[in-house]
Amino acid sequence: MFVGGSATNDAGIGILHALGIRSLATDQLLKPIGSSLAELTGFDETQIRIPFTEVNFTLVCDVKNHLYGPKGAAYVYAPQKGADPKAVEYLDLGLRNFAQVVLTQRGISVNDFEGAGAAGGVAAGIKAFYPISIQSGIEAIIEMVGLAEAVAEADLVITGEGKFDDQTLEGKVVKGVYDLCTRYQKRMAVICGTLDLNPQQLESLDIWKVSPLVRADTTMEQAIDNAYELVSRRAFELLEDISSV
User: Fold this and answer.
1) pTM value?
2) 122 Cβ partners below 8 Å, 6+ apart?
3) At 228, which helix (H) or strand (E)?
4) Taking a C-beta distance cutoff of 8 angstroms, is the pair 188, 178 a contact?
5) C-alpha–C-alpha distance, residues 244 and 25, integer Å
6) Residue range 41-63: average pLDDT?
7) 146-153 contacts at long range (C-beta below 8 A, 24 or more positions apart)
8) C-alpha dihedral, 48 to 50 to 54 to 58, nearest 10°
9) Residues with Cβ within 8 Å of residue 54, at least 6 apart in sequence
10) Selected residue with higher pLDDT from 53 and 212
11) What is the pLDDT of the chain when averaged over all its residues?
């Protein structure tokens, strides 16, 4: 199961609901959404569709965040999806409550592993009921597409993402490609929507070129409206730069 890029913050109770595991507030059914987590008191497993012993999950994610707290799902990801500070605080409270209910009812800790907070806590929710293993997202993709072999034969590697920031360095695609380029001593360039790393962080990575769409001559609105054209233009600029070296 690939987890990430989600607009949910429900600790996976939506997925659990689909699997027949109902969330309860005392004896009342809760909607399987993030705002219900603070009211959660237990689970009804009588309608479970797949018994715990019949399946296990490999969860593929590219972040290491725990479920709750300053580096948890709500505080890190909910603001990106439009949550205001009050909503973030409430969602984090719900995630904490979810973890406590799981610990009390099932004797399982769901906050103490890397990736628990991925996709709004999906990994934590699945772990509450099913055996899971966690695999790095970029490692899975590298293996699936044969990226290591392609990088080894390349003269220039171009990668990218929407926002190049601190989270990038926590194991996302760009960091994984960077590690491959370092291993094979290949030149690497990054095309990104926005750049939010300071010069010291960039210098420590020793990346050949970073080319954001948003810069002095391009606003965020222009970048969004003309993304295809701008990505193509930045790519050609990189090829022109390397041909002149």
Assistant:
1) 0.73
2) 1, 3, 6, 8, 11, 12, 15, 59
3) helix 227-243
4) yes
5) 66
6) 88
7) 147/177, 147/180, 148/180, 151/177, 151/180, 151/181, 151/184, 151/186, 152/184, 152/186
8) -110
9) none
10) 212
11) 91
Burial (CB < 10 A; 0-12, 13-18, 19+), residue 139, is middle
**Residue matched to tokens 């769409």:** 213
Residue 77 token pair: 């990801």
Q: Which structure tokens are listed for 138?
A: 């970029």
Domains of the chain (ranges; CATH) run: 13-137 (3.90.1510.10), 146-243 (3.40.50.10350)
- Rounded CA-CA distance 159/142 in Å is 13
DSSP string, 124-182: HHHHTTS-EEEEEHHHHHHHHHTHHHHHHH-SEEEEEEEEESGGGGGT-HHHHHHHHHH
Rounded CA Rg of the chain:
21
The residue ranking higher by pLDDT, 74 or 172, is: 74
Residue 232 CA neighbour count, 13 Å, CB half? 4
